[in-house]
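SAMPLE LOG
Freezer: B-3
Tube label: C17
Construct: single chain, 109 aa
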Amino acid sequence: MSAHPTFALRFGFGAPLPIRSVADVRTALGRTWPRRDTPRYLRARELCELAQAGYCRPQVAIEALVAAAAEQGLLHRHRASDAIDRFDSLFTPSKDHARWKRPSTDWQR
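STRUCTURE (predicted):
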């Protein structure tokens, strides 16, 4: 599983555009946005240019784009697959298991 959640932007009725790299950020910024004059959009554009030039990490540009898209209602979160949910449930201890493993502290006092 990825360390970062997968985000996608939905422009109009088209297919969602997944955001995974600075190139995806640049493509998304070139599409039609409701408002291109908001501070978050302008900041995302600036950070995208800095990330392409190597002056900031790509993840910073992606996070700025996600913030700008959320502000304008373009953010589309991918739901994790059912297989990942089942996998997580197999390796997440249940509350009963955690209670059974918890040591008693009464005798330590």
